[in-house]
Specification:
Layout: E1 17-18, E2 23-26, H1 32-40, H2 43-47, H3 65-81, E3 85-90, E4 97-104, E5 113-119, H4 127-141, E6 147-148
Parallel strand pairs: 5-6
Antiparallel strand pairs: 1-2, 2-3, 3-4, 4-5
Protein name: N-acetyltransferase
InterPro entries: Acyl_CoA_acyltransferase
Organism: Microlunatus parietis
Length: 152
C-alpha cells in the first residue's frame, strides 16, 4: 500500500502570506546569509519556542554557512516534491529574514500536518501573531484539518 500523499495531487500550494508585520515566501538558498544570521543570533530563544519539543534544533553551536545552504536546498527540494513546505519569514520593509515556518507531515498520532515556526529573539513579539496568522492561513488555504501546532 502506497503512503498517502502529503497534499492532494490537484492541490496548488500557496507560495505567500503577507501581513503588515511580515511576509512569507518559500525558503531557498537565496536566503542563506540572512537565514543563517537570523537563527544563529537566536539559538536559545528558538530552542525555548513552542514546537521545538526535543531540543535538537537549532544546533547549540550553530553550523557553517555551507551546511546551512545545504539545509536550505533540502527544504527547497521538499517543497518542489510536495513533501514539506518551508517558508522564510521576512520583514516587509527591509526584506531581512526574521523567522521561518515549517509545514511537514505530522509524526504524532491524530494530526495531518506538523506546524513549527520561530522568529529571531529581537522580534519575539511576532511569535504569537505569526503562529496565529499561519493557523488561519492553514484553515483557509491548505488541505489539512488536524494541524499539530505543539500547544499553540
Amino acid at each position: 500500500m502506497e503512503p498517502r500523499p502529503f497534499v492532494p495531487d490537484d492541490f496548488e500550494p500557496p507560495t505567500s502570506l503577507t501581513t503588515e508585520r511580515f511576509r512569507l515566501e518559500p525558503l531557498g538558498e537565496q536566503h542563506n546569509a540572512s537565514d543563517h544570521a537570523a537563527w544563529t543570533s537566536s539559538i536559545e530563544h528558538i530552542r525555548a519556542t513552542a514546537g521545538y519539543p526535543d531540543g535538537s534544533w537549532p544546533p547549540p553551536h550553530g553550523m557553517s554557512l555551507e551546511d546551512n545552504a545545504r539545509d536550505l536546498r533540502r527544504h527547497a527540494a521538499d517543497f518542489a516534491a510536495r513533501k514539506g513546505f518551508t517558508f522564510t519569514v521576512l520583514d516587509p520593509g527591509s526584506g531581512d529574514v526574521i523567522g521561518c515556518v515549517y509545514l511537514y507531515p505530522a509524526d504524532r498520532e491524530g494530526y495531518d500536518v506538523s506546524v513549527q515556526s520561530w522568529v529571531r529573539a529581537d522580534r519575539a513579539d511576532l511569535d504569537g501573531p505569526l503562529a496565529d496568522a499561519v493557523a488561519a492561513w492553514l484553515e483557509a488555504d491548505w488541505p489539512w484539518r488536524r494541524p499539530d501546532r505543539y500547544g499553540r
